[in-house]
Amino acid sequence: MIREMNLQDFGVFWATFSEIVKAQETYAFEPDINFEQAYELWCETPERTFVFEENNQILGSYYIKPNGMGPSKHICNCGYMVAPESRGKGIAGKLCKHSQAMAMELGFKAIQFNSVVSTNKAAVSLWQKLGFSIIGTIPKAYLHKKLGYVDSYIMYKQLKT
User: Fold this and answer.
1) By CB distance 3.0 to 4.6 Å, which of 6, 12, 57, 157 could disulfide with 132?
2) What is the DSSP secondary structure assignment for residue 1, as one 8-state letter?
3) How far apart are CA 159 and CA 27, in angstroms?
């Protein structure tokens, strides 16, 4: 089930969020971000935030927000996280499909991912399978904890509105 996230949900999700950010392999968030900062970033700043819940466990989450302001506010941005032990089960795909429907419901015309780390092959492949295109490469844009500087992709999908 995918539903809106609340503070209590984020408290449960915090361990996953923290683990992913500290790994420094996919997200450009400060690795020492605290709970309050993370909650504001993931839940309060975005327009909406959702959780994927199964058997009373929160296995993933995404946020949706405008990617720009004014004349660019018709394009949204989303961020997705799936608990490491739940990867490979189709959760990210379900979250992305839900986010596309939500984007259209909210009036967005397209989705843009500003920084998909090139070494995150599973995400790049999934986003392409779901209709996103790489529209740009930012050389050495991400300092990967294990691999050093790696490229990031800008990915984009026009929505049917």
Assistant:
1) 157
2) -
3) 25
109 vs 76: CA distance, rounded Å: 8
81 vs 5: CA distance, rounded Å? 13
Q: What φ, ψ does residue 33 adopt, rounded to 5°?
A: -55, 140
- Ramachandran region, residue 138 (left: φ > 0; alpha: ψ -120 to 50; beta: rest): beta
Distance CA 30, CA 119 (A): 19
pLDDT more than 70, % of the chain: 99
Give pLDDT tens digits for 42-54: 999 999 999 999 9
**Is residue 22 classed exposed, middle or buried when 0-12, 13-18 and 19+ CB atoms within 10 A define those classes?**
middle
Measured between alpha carbons, how far is 18 from 117 in angstroms, rounded to an integer?
18
Token pair of 107 as six digits = 């009036």
Predicted TM-score of the model (pTM)? 0.94
123 closest CA partner among 99, 93, 151, 89: 93
Strands 75-82 and 110-117, how do they pair? parallel
Q: What are phi and psi of 9, to 5 degrees?
A: -60, -45
